[in-house]
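Extended Data, panel c. Modelled sequence:
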Amino acid sequence: MNKIRICLFIYSVCFVNTLFVNTAFALQSIDTLVNQGKLSVSVSLAQDEQHIVGQALVVSIEVATDRWFATGSRVQNFTLPNVVMQANNITTINGSKRIQGQTWAMQTHEITLYPTLAGKYTLPALNVDVSINTENDGIVSGVLKTQTSAFIISLPEALNGIDSFIVSPEVTLTIEGQFDIDKNYAIGEALTQTITITARDTPAMMIPELNFIHMNNETSGVTTKNTSEKTKHSTLGGISVYRKPAQVFDKSTRGVLLGSRVESSTYIFEQTGNYVLPKQIIYWWNSQSNTLEELVIPASSWAVSGGGLTNMSHANHNLRNIKFSLKSVIILGISLFFAFFVYLVFAKHENLTILYKKLTKYDQRQLRQNFLKSIAKNEYVVSTQYLYQYALIVNKYAEVKSLPLTERLNELAFQATLNQEVAVSFPMSDAKALIKEIDTLSGKSTKSIRFPPNKVIMLNKK
């Protein structure tokens, strides 16, 4: 038993000793190759004369050997304060060069940095894993350390006081979905505006988000805040805004990096008034001409008239003020008997039509049917329009907006287009449950409207 323990102890000591010896030999061999001038590592910075905040700075680490690489070389991960680095941003280039008449194998690792503050930076010594196939010792692996280096990042005087800007030789701005100043939008109508910013030689993460500022009308305004998790909804001053999470993506075209940021917002008009969206300025430092330029999102003005749901509300109000009594019925009957044809000539039949629809719940039934049909067809944006009209016709518009099923339908109608992997739907059972809940809130009171319930409000249509 003691002999077995002694043998195990000896084997363990030999094994550990072998590990330390091999490691020491490998480290010594790497140092020997460097000392003998058979292996080298160097660092260089591709820096302009005036390198500014936010501008890409490429660090090149070159590893060269007079033999050849076994498993290549790799730069170990590192961090640098006040510097943004993309994930997997190291590009490795294999090549060769002639040194004193001899061909050396070479690997160049390019790392792109994006400094966020002006000042002097020190790039520390970086660890590089190498594996060389030597002439006499076979494959030798180890770690090389680069020399420390420094660089200076400046901030041009023209950028003082500007918090957000883009650094790029070329930036483009496109806007889809413009507000029409000559059009009177109806309550319940909606418009979707999409703004796309594309910058060359700049990743999308370095394009700042748009600063959505207050929107003003005669009495109030509307603001939005962004979110990266789901569609953001806010309601202020008669307009609901659904702002989708920004789409941020990069693509390379013939070796040229293009970063794009797409922001989309949907505006739903809920009250009458004149609205103004002030212009926005996107500051862009042209790295090719070293000048400050501006991209302008023009101001927008539009009016929301009393059409659509407002006419329906006025008609409902007029009907609620009618008081029926025996005397009024007799007088009304006599008046109708003598003025029937005159009444038709002067188009007074409209009130009779409204009364008929009120008594038969025609508009309510039509809107309910249209709502369920649009749900069945997965036309959720259209279904929200029918839902708002139905809510106002039963005089429960304010209460319906706060119902959980209504909020879920709104999020589904104006959700972000990025998250397409998640299957989201609004089943017919939920649609019927929502209508039933509205009917429960409104009791048996039925309202009337002055517009056809089959008319769908179109988005972004002038």
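Residues 308-442 form one domain. This feature is highlighted in the accompanying rendering.
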